[in-house]
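User: I'm putting together a small comparison set for a docking exercise, and I want a reference complex before I start. The sequence is below, and the ligand is adenosine-5'-triphosphate. Could you produce the 3D structure with the ligand included, as structure tokens?
Assistant: Of course. I'll restate your input first, then give the structure tokens for the complex.
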Amino acid sequence: MSERLLDIQNLSVTFGGLDALSDLDFHVDEGEIVSVIGPNGAGKTTFFNMISGMVTPTSGDIMFKGESLLGLDPNQVTARGIARTFQNVRLFANMTILENVMVAQHCRTKQGLMGALFQTGGFKREEQEIREHGEKVLGFFGSRLVGYRLNQPASVLSYANRRRLEIARAMATKPEVILLDEPVAGMNPKESEELTGLIGKLRDEWGFTIVMIEHDMGVVRDVSDRVVVLDHGETIAQGSYDEVSSNPAVIEAYLGRPAEEAS
Amino acid sequence: MSVNMNTDEAVVLASARGAFDQDWRKVANWGLICAFALIFVSLTDMPDKLDKRVIVEPLLSMGYLSLIWIPIALGNLVTREVVLEGMTQHKKGVRELVAGLSVGAIGGAGLALLIWLLDTRDLSDPLVNWNDALLEVLSFGEGVGYGAIFWILASAGLGLAGGALHVLPTTANRLLFAISLTIVLAASLESALDDISEGFRLEWLFEALFEKKGGLSVQGAIILAVFAIAWVLVLGGQAKRGRAAVTARRELSPTKVNTVGLAIIAVAAVVLPMFLGRLTNDLFTNVGLFLLLALGLNIVVGLAGILDLGYVAFFAVGGYTAAIMTSPTSPGLSPELPWWVAIFVVVFMAIVAGLFIGAPVIRMRGDYLAIVTLGFGEIIRLTVRSDWASGFTGGAQGILSIPGADIVGVATVKGTDPQQVLYLVIGFVAIAIYVSWRLENSRIGRAWMAVREDESVAEAMGINTVNSKLQAFVVGAILASFSGAIFAAKVGSVFESSFKILVSIVILVIVIVGGMGRIAGVAAGALVLVGILGGPNQPGLLAEFSEFKLLIYGALLIWMMLKRPEGLIPNVRRSRELHQEEFLQDAWLKAQANDDDDEAASGEVAPA
Ligand SMILES: Nc1ncnc2c1ncn2[C@@H]1O[C@H](COP(=O)(O)OP(=O)(O)OP(=O)(O)O)[C@@H](O)[C@H]1O
Ligand SMILES: [Mg+2]
């Protein structure tokens, strides 16, 4: 058995009476691509928020490489090796594309005020490394984010390119696990097909373990090793894509339930 | 004032509309605004108080200028239209003139009403400026009827002129703008020009332009106008091309420095003070002190996005620490350290104060943080004044007889010698600029920007936002404390009244008006606000304006927020052309997607 990288144990959270997530139990092994799916409001993003330390669970535990992540600040979680993207694309809009991926390496670098003021050798070397690594992760998307783009503010990017930059920024933090929140939302079929291929590459060539929230079933089918289905905070199914997609509970969750229950 | 319409090719140009084909409601609205503005400015007493400040002798004074720009501007704005791609734009013609004329006439009628009321009623109880002097200025001492008719006609004429700006060709607009700007600027800078011309042995030039008793002579105004025209026609194109080249280079490598520009500024900073007189040196010193403060606040607000409204606290910490350390008559502790040693204590105290104030407030966000810092700013000042601390700070008596700043082995800067103080200030401003520039392009600076852009995302990207913000707070505190230490040595005394909240506000206005996040912008802001209008306690070049300083600051701030939120010298990163390109790419992508697979593209909606 490969190493159990991320282990979610009985994770629950309530927001003022609303059970956004209840008793989620699942794990991610190293080198896996796991998809989290479910209708709108199922609690998928909330789940990511808890892993990344932005929301504190009501009960349960999140173990990463055998250590609990509970009580850590988001920046500490990122430093441990878990990076994420945001569903509603939250780039640093007025910073350049290169700066966006440079700043993401903050927790992997250490030069302080003095290094910058006196332009020490160590500072210059580190700046060089930050820049090179930044250009390397941007290069992952071909020529889309490099060249003349490097020094343009992120706000000028098209929607699809913003999504790509979000992924590049997560990659730049040198993580072990990347949490992708709806990476292809808003992309056209061509673009999402391309990105599907890239998600595979993220694991195969870069060695990242990936947890992905996605509504596009084509993408989920093509890349996932396993799928977890949430609905109203409950885990209604887990397993391979084929198992899950033929599960009656899942079909009901997606296609709607009897009229009296639907809100 | 003039507005150049961007006539895009995509805009459909239609023939001019008829003279009376007006939106009369709009005209009436703008007319009333014009009337209110004229009455308001009159009741602030600007026309009377500023009448002594002559622009062109004997034609125009700042007092009358405070009125006449209103009908021109509003007469122009009433027919201004935002024309977007695909919209129809009508040719400008008589219609614009009629609208301008009407707006001006309504405004003039408002002023005439005020003149009549001034004569017949006495409202001096709530309105302190309701007096005969104002009536005298408004009616030129020729009686109510004369004044009323004059202003209706004059205002209508000015409104007409404002409307006419739409009709005139762009070049004419640009020329008029350049001429008015040159003349007003020259008149504003009169005392500085007087001072500088002495230093450069150019008194003859000054005498050719200005009257002895103040103000430009008619001949001087004409010379300046010719100069402005020549500038626009000959150099205008070149300057534009040069600027475009610089901007283009900036876009390719934004962190690169314009070495030539920097060298020129450096040489000027070293050479210029030698030629400047007392007055100008002193003026630049004040500008420098505020520039130092603004550069510090720019790191805190502009880079890290922490809205600190109590920034004056660190200015006070610097001033008082330097005073206590160097003054022989300091009431409590009096080590009488030399100034250059004291500066180390100042830095230490600034760090302590930065951490002390920063630690509790830094976890707050937005409005809460602003309010709490505002409180801390006052707390520091009131503590300094309190009985509890007055054993060290002298309470309301302050600390006196602070010797100048001696800098070991280099010089002893006497506070009474403006030129020496200016050099000292320039030295520290240079340090502050270097620090800002180096930090902005470093790991720390990028973290600050990320925190400013979106704090929770910055945190999720591995930045310890609390530490980051504290660092920004402390760096800002140190720069402010330098300014305070120089201030103490320059003035020779410190009083708590020099560190009121107003100082914080003025520094913030400098940063906002200049252009947040840009060093050049902050410098421009300090020069314009402190140099021309004056600081909170420091006179500027327009000494007569000191009473209206806050009014103008406020108006400027509101106008900036509405029309140019990015500041006088905006960040090149936000250039509009860049967007254009991306829109084109989006359109192209969309078109491609549609061609390839119309069906799939529409079926791409996520399951709901
Ligand atoms: N901070 C919060 N406070 C209160 N309620 C919240 C909060 N965050 C999420 N919720 C609620 O929790 C539920 C789950 O939200 P979540 O964003 O996790 O859904 P999702 O599965 O990501 O949906 P989508 O597919 O639309 O992105 C929703 O009902 C939402 O309104
Ligand atoms: Mg979501």
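The longest helix of chain B spans residues 218-252. The pocket of magnesium ion (ligand 2) is lined by residues A 44-45, 87 (CB under 6 Å).
User: Thanks, that's exactly what I needed.
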